[in-house]
Write a structure and sequence with these properties.
Elements lengths: L2 H25 L9 H5 L1 H34 L13 E6 L2 E6 L5 E3 L3
Antiparallel strand pairs: 1-2, 2-3
Helix pairs in contact: 1-3
Length: 114
């Protein structure tokens, strides 16, 4: 696995959430210029959509910060993960054939929880 695959695995989903939130906030601009009658009636809905998009964007940013922190600890050797392939942190999942662990860094899988 190279660095590009690791970066995509760690940062693609959080960055996508941030981008979706920013696009949502951009579409529902709450500016004084939108002072028409219809805009005033729809303002509570627009406000809810705006703050929902803001929450999605902030959640994605926090997830992105957590991924940066995990990679920083992993690069320094402080992260003592359970992955037998790269030493990265594991995510514990329940699948069709029982419990298994999947590495957040390289994507390798192990049977059971480690």
């Amino acid at each position: 696995m190279n660095d590009l695959e690791r970066a995509f695995r760690l940062y693609a989903r959080p960055a996508l959430l941030v981008i979706i939130g920013l696009i949502g906030m951009g579409f529902v601009a709450m500016t004084p210029e939108s002072a028409g009658v219809l805009d005033q009636m729809l303002m509570p809905i627009k406000r809810a959509i705006f703050y929902g998009a803001l929450a999605v964007s902030c959640g994605g940013f926090l997830w992105l910060c957590w991924s940066v922190y995990l990679e920083y600890r992993w690069a320094r050797g402080d992260l003592d993960g359970g992955c037998h392939n790269c030493g990265g942190p594991m995510r514990h999942l329940s699948g069709r054939w029982g419990n298994y662990s999947k590495c957040l860094m390289c994507g390798s899988k192990r049977e059971g929880w480690h």
